[in-house]
Design goal:
Structural class: alpha/beta
Largest sheet: 7 strands, mixed, barrel
Radius of gyration: 17 Å
Order of helices and strands: EEEHEEEEHEEHEHEEE
Number of helices: 4
Strand content: 25-35%
Strand order of the largest sheet: 5-11-10-8-6-12-13
Number of strands: 13
Bound molecules: zinc ion
């Protein structure tokens, strides 16, 4: 596969005050704690939940004794990714095993699988926070059987909003698959394609989540 360096696409939300967060999560607070005119330097303080904006879920998020984000090897989040176009699914519906099986031939063992639901186009709309397209537990199970290494989605969570049991998270994280959530709507430009994904979460000790900068390089050709 050929990479065209210099054509990276940034798939990351800008972290800002007042940005969309999962209902109930802490609101980010970003402020200048030192000012150039007064203190001789500009210095920003950042206070936020570990699942703010584009981020990675580590196993310890839902697995007792699981690895924190700092323990995950850097190469876990770098590799070939396939972007599945699931934007035909209505908001609030489940991505099921049936939906995913249609892409069977496109998904290789060790792949990063990115689910483009199109929900990211509604990132700032309040209704979407409790009505987004999600991955159901059977769909997650199928991805485990396929041997993929990471599953990503372009909205707040892979889980159904308000699910009483985090079955999708447990199925993925409990089987060594890490999760990327809140990928930006730029992912839509890559729907249906293969990319080289580089996703580097902040190395925070013991953290269940890691805010990440993620970029993609489109891949051309068959191998
Ligand atoms: Zn998360």
């Amino acid at each position: 596969l050929k990479i065209t360096v210099g054509k990276a696409l940034d798939l990351t939300h800008t972290v800002r005050n007042g940005m969309t967060v999962y209902p109930g999560d802490p609101e980010p607070r970003i402020e200048r704690v030192k000012e150039l005119f007064r203190d001789g330097v500009n210095l920003t303080g950042i206070e936020m939940g570990a699942h703010t904006g584009t981020h990675v879920d580590a196993p310890i998020h839902f697995i007792e004794g699981g690895a924190g984000v700092d323990e995950l090897p850097a190469e876990q989040f770098v590799g070939e990714a396939v972007v599945l176009d699931l934007s035909h699914k209505p908001p609030g519906s489940a991505i099921t095993r049936d939906d995913l099986e249609k892409y069977d031939a496109q998904i290789k063992e060790g792949d990063i699988v990115l689910l483009y639901t199109g929900m990211s186009r509604h990132w700032d709309e309040e209704w979407a926070r409790s009505n987004y397209t999600y991955l159901d537990a059977e769909g997650a199970e199928w991805l485990v059987e396929k041997g993929v290494k990471v599953v990503g989605i372009d909205f707040l969570s892979v889980e159904r909003y308000g699910a009483e049991e985090p079955k999708t998270h447990r199925t993925l994280l409990g089987n060594g698959i890490t999760i990327i959530e809140s990928i930006s709507s730029e992912l839509g430009r890559l729907a249906g394609g293969r990319i080289l994904l580089i996703c580097l979460p902040l190395k925070v000790e013991g953290s269940d989540g890691g805010p990440a900068r993620i970029i993609a390089y489109p891949l051309e050709g068959d191998d």
